[in-house]
Amino acid sequence: MATTEVLFARDQERDGVVVDIAGGPALRDAESALRAVGGLLARTPGLSGAESAYFAGRLLVFATSGRARHDGEWENTSWWDFTAGAGASEEYRRMCVIGPTRSLVAAKAERAGVPSIARTQVEFWSGLLGASGYAESDRVLDAPTTEAWIGPWASHLVRLGVRFLTGHRVIRLRTAGGRVRAAAVRLPSGAVHEIEADWFVCAVPAEAAVRTLGPEVCDLDESLTDIDRLETDWMTGIQFFLREPTPLAHGHVVHVDSPWALTSIAQAQFWSGTDLPRRYGDGTVRDCLSVDVSAWDVPGPLTGRPARACTRAEFIEEVWHRLESSLRRGARGLLSRGLVHSCFTDPAIRWPAEPGGLARNREPLLISTPGSRRWRPRPAGRVPNLFQAGDHVDVDLNLATMEAADQSAKAAVNALLAAAGSRADSCVVRGWAPPSELDRLRVLDDELYAAGLPNVFDRPAPWVSGPAR
Questions:
Q1: From residue 277, how far is each of 143, 259, 267, 338 by CA, in Å?
Q2: Residue 47 CB-density burial (10 A; 0-12 exposed, 13-18 middle, 19+ buried)
Q3: What whole-number distance in Å separates Cα of residue 469 and Cα of residue 454?
């Protein structure tokens, strides 16, 4: 279901700004795209027209860059450098530099690579502006995730013959003759059992991949050990179950001034046909305010400690305090503590028992840093019956999203079918498709890059001298 708004919520009793993202007529040329994006950014709080136009220009530079520049220049450039964060105003850094990285993928702007952030921004703005071939800018599920997606998908796989062995842990893979022979699995009883098969797909998170593959596999394909060089950070949060519907915006809320980089969304308004009080809880819960926390290493205003050094109770108190501070209309707060029925924190977080201890996160988020593509495994490597899947695999969309996981899964299946000599149809892998209206400009950019020249739209930021490269 498509959202229609983004609310940029502000602190210090400043009213937030709602941006309509319902879309518009298809754009036909780069000039009109630049004007439209710049005009929309100019409506956000505190940004000058020059800053808005410059950021719009950076997106246009990326969208008109050819493959050679993407691979040779932007792949090795940080988002901070690309957007000229150094020397910029605080508002520009909050809205255009730090905001897109923290709220999207919990990445620090200085460490986030250009391709993953810029592609998402180009997709967002292309959908927002109604560019041909693009869907809505922001879509969410129309029911709780388990009901709308995970449950039906698992049931479908079971009907196809898939067996889910919950409570079983793959310790490592065993090899023989240059191939994977079996997976050593620890059963719920604690016993270790080996499962033999013809084909193996390793679809575990990046931080667990090398450990799961084991030394025998890594000896056969030493490039797989580079997976351990990929970086992760934390992006997880909390759900507040509320006694009254609280549709603060018909879409996501970006809490611009929050030190913990909060984003939130009131979910019940999108759950069509779901009678929340009747189906869930004790009958008094009528909304679910879901909050992501993306900056876990910045001190909070109440405790003075970062999120990862808070107890669960302190974490909840800090997050709710920040929500109350930024969700205001004039002097009136839009939230009150009396609304909260209960809350749920991500079970992947293991909280310290006492203040000052450090929380642990069993499910960190993969971050695409400059130059990290060379450490990502391909779907098929040097072990002929082993294939890799996950958002850390080198596919077209190198970003920790379900779209990237979908791409890598389909690429792994296609590689397996080819290795097995199967005549089954290949999966259709839909990669990133930059705006087709700009195709001729990307051809021109390949020529400029080969000649050692910058992109035709590359201009220095108003606050620096020389090109922003």
A1: 14, 34, 14, 17
A2: buried
A3: 9
Cβ atoms of 184 and 171 within 8 Å: the answer is: yes
Residue 137 and residue 127 in contact, taking contact as beta carbons nearer than 8 Å: yes
Question: What is 37-85 written as a DSSP string?
Answer: HHHHHHTSTT--HHHHHHHHHHHHHHHT--HHHHHHTGGGSBHHHHTT-
How many whole angstroms separate alpha carbon 379 and alpha carbon 392?
A: 10
User: Is 151 strand, coil or helix?
Assistant: helix
Tokens describing residue 277: 């009080």
What are the C-alpha distances in Å from 118 to residues 21, 129, 232, 307? Answer: 18, 16, 19, 28
3-state secondary structure 386-452: EEECCCCCCCCCCCCCHHHHHHHHHHHHHHHHHHHCCCCCCCCCCCCCCCHHHHHHHHHHHHHHHCC
Write the pLDDT tens digit of every residue in 74-85. 999 999 999 999
- Read off the pTM: 0.88
The pLDDT tens digits of the residues spanning 7-20 come to 888 886 666 777 77
What integer pLDDT is reported at residue 182 of this predicted model?
97
Is 116 within 8 Å of 75 (Cβ atoms)?
Answer: no
Helix-, strand-, coil-residue percentages of the chain, each rounded to 5: 40, 20, 45
